[in-house]
Amino acid sequence: MAAKKSKKQSAPKATSNSSPQTTRLWLMYPPKLITTPVIWEVGHKFNVMTNVRQASVTDEIGVVCLELDGQRPEIKAAIKWLEKLGVKVEPVEINVIES
Amino acid sequence: MEKTEGFMKALKCRECGREYPLNATHVCEFDFGPLEVAYDYEKARQSLTRENIASRPQTMWRYRELLPIADKQPSVGFDVGFTPLLKADRLAKRLGIRELWIKNDAVNYPTLSFKDRVVSVALSRAKELGFTTVACASTGNLANSVAANAAAAGLKAYVFIPADLEEGKIVNSLVYGAQVIGIRGHYDEVNRLCAEIAGKFGWGFVNVNMRPYYAEGSKSMGFEIIEQLGWRLPQHTVVPMASGSLLTKIHKSYQEFIKLGLVAESKYKVHGAQATGCSPISIAHKGGMDFFKPVKPNTIAKSLAIGTPADGFYALKVMKETGAAADDVTDDEIRDGMKLLAECEGIFTETAGGVTVGVAKKLIASGRIPANDSVVLCITGNGLKTLDAVAGHVGKTREIRPSLREFEALIEAESKVNC
To answer: What is the ipTM of this complex?
Structure first.
């Protein structure tokens, strides 16, 4: 499934008091998204800088370790878009909440 | 970086092997791999002898050379660990195996779960690093343990929970004076926010920036098993898997004792147990994969309900290396496992223990644990914490009026049924 590129996403505007931050994430793709250039799209739809640090793609699952640089609202919007697309987005620690 | 602290040498990336100073940090800056404590084993070998261990108090700290603190003594949780290892003959007979042992962390001190091991290590190290506030994100045992141990150590504690968590689980943390913060939102959002908070505030977040130290506490369970078995390795160990960390650390503890010459090397297997309603690691292992796919948990074994297990990859690796099996059990099988352990051995475990017993039963029945072998089951928490999981499934009270005749009639009827 290719993500639609026709409509420009209405990403929230950065507030004046927000400062740039770096967020480190693990993205896990279902098989249907493995052929989609998800990271390229994130970099174009949102004002964030993407930096892949590690990746493993098989027929079963795609796992990408990604650093996102940008204003916090942009990063949050990018994560929301990824999740809507069907990508599982975890912090670098993966499961912070334990039993 | 070569300067040791206690018996620790450095933090080391589990992926690329890069080394980092022994600070409150947990992820490799190059590949985001998790960091793990590396020890000076030659130095540890000098004082960690069977004789010295036997002369020390019966707590998890008798193996302090292989636990990540710089000081000679811990400052938090001095009495944690050295829980009973019981020879469970009645359960062994029921499951059809020659020898079965229960490592019973359902009575671990002070909060009745194995989490006291990891938390006492994390908080002791946090104090060494100068933290006065500690924190965790948890839905149960970890929260209780952080709250209790922090209170005893005079540390301020923050506990983050999903806002919809049952009240019963919150009381066990609130009572110790911890600051409990409920976060509204989907689980994944709450999870990410907790990671952000951990990065932003200068606290000792036990399972985030203190994680390399925290996770090492689990090894004490494996050290104790070896010593309590009379300085031998168990042929089989069955371990419940949530993040998968405990399984990897039991394996590490066995390897370290072999390396230090404290136990003779012999073949052993560390098997993994999950609930069918949340079994990403078990599914992957059974499918012969070395990676797992995230799942959405739906099980009564809440303490194992981690759909994206952080150490899943490493747990799979250990099971593959030791030729071990993984399996999973349904909610009914979990309850049956809890009842079986209680009825045979008088031990009331939480749902995670039911998972361990249920999976052990499957592994023995299928011959993956041979009937002539010996097995240790790791019971990690107390049944009083998950009463709701078995309520309504363990029989009913029979009532009579204050009449001896009625009681005699009841006993007579019962003896007829039993005949």
So the answer is: 0.83
* A23 interaction partners in chain B (CB closer than 8 Å): 196
- The mean of the pLDDT values for chain A is 83
Q: Which of B30, B242, B291 sits opposite A98 (nearest CB)?
A: B242
The answer to whether residue A1 scores a pLDDT higher than 50 is no
Sorted by where each starts, the structural domains of chain B and their CATH numbers stand as 85-111+218-390 (3.40.50.1100), 115-214 (3.40.50.1100)
Which chain A residues have a beta carbon less than 8 Å from that of B192? 79, 89-91, 96
Cis status, amide bond into B110, omega within 30 of 0: yes
Q: Is the pLDDT of residue A8 over 60?
A: no
Where helices occur in B240-373 by DSSP H, the ranges are 245-259, 280-286, 312-321, 331-345, 351-365
| Domain layout of chain A by residue ranges | 20-91
- The strand pair at B35-39 and B156-162 is best described as unpaired
Average pLDDT of chain B? 94
| Residues on chain B touching A65 (C-beta within 8 angstroms) | 31-32
Q: Would you call B384 helix, strand, or coil by DSSP? A: helix
Of A58, A89, A92, the CB nearest to B188: A89
> Domain A20-91, what fold?
Alpha-Beta Plaits (3.30.70)
Taking only the tens place, the pLDDT of each residue in B15-31 is: 999 999 999 999 999 99
